[in-house]
Model the fold of this input.
Amino acid sequence: MSTDQRYDIADQHEDGVAVGDAVEPVEAPPPPPDDLLLVVDIGGTKIDVGLMTRRGEMIDRARDEVDHSLNAEGFFDQIAALVDEQMDRARSHHRVVPLAVGVGCAGPVTANVATVSPLNIYSWRDFPLNQRLAELTKLPVYGELDAKALALAEGWMGAAVGKQSFLAMVVSTGVGGGIVLDGQLLDGRTGNAGHIGHVVVEPNGRRCVCGSRGCLEAEASGPAIEAITGRPPTEPTYEIMQRTGRLVGTAVASVCNLLDLDLVVVGGSVALGFGATFFNSAQDALSVHSRLAFSSGTRIVPARLGDRGPLIGAGAVAIRGLHRSRQGNRRT
Done:
């Protein structure tokens, strides 16, 4: 792998993550005992908090379901309880203090999760997540959109290792994406690049939480499936698994034709729960709609990291943030 390739996670080979090379696993000695990160993933259904080494190893983890009846402060208190539990585990059980906090959060968000407004968490609008977590933990906090964090994770340790351009996406309570192009994770003007859930797949379709109609999220997310079928997405019919895959494949075909991508990595409880039926249907639709010479061989595959991916992605965000902070300190 040539050394002029780039992938913007961190420039620190001791972590097995590098800018200057494609992201690949690197054999390295076990991390020192203080080499630990607190990682947080906030989605529309669940909150996941854990402890991760800078090699991407999860050594502790706690989870809770999102309580949508809570107001903004109550919901943060729910997250804080898990954070406090994991901070206590770090100190008392693992005998370390984490170096930083890495966060992946459903969006939209502002830069470094300074404020977050997840569409499926109605009580949070412009919630100052970075500041509140920094006050709670007394640690530096680095944050990103959850699907963009997943893209970092899958490029580092998962199904996109060695790839310089790909789309990673989550099909779950919401539908989101992260785009890596020529080794760079795309941010866009506000940091919200990759919101593939708001690509329209059914003109005049169902009303979306964003205010539009026929968005992929309004047709293929967990809540949409339940609203359409009257059944939870954990009890799908064969037809709904096929339809969901077909809609996802149609949406990603447009992205791959637009950006010259040949790999799509999909995680999330809906996609992974629907399994082969979903992925076969998505691949069929993708192949039908990707007919250009450069996109005709595009593949859509399951996220390799499973339900660890979002937390590993949050850890990758923290590693990247620590690296950028060090680089900034060197310049000054």
In short: The chain has eight helices and ten strands. The CA atoms of residues 77 and 96 lie 24 Å apart.
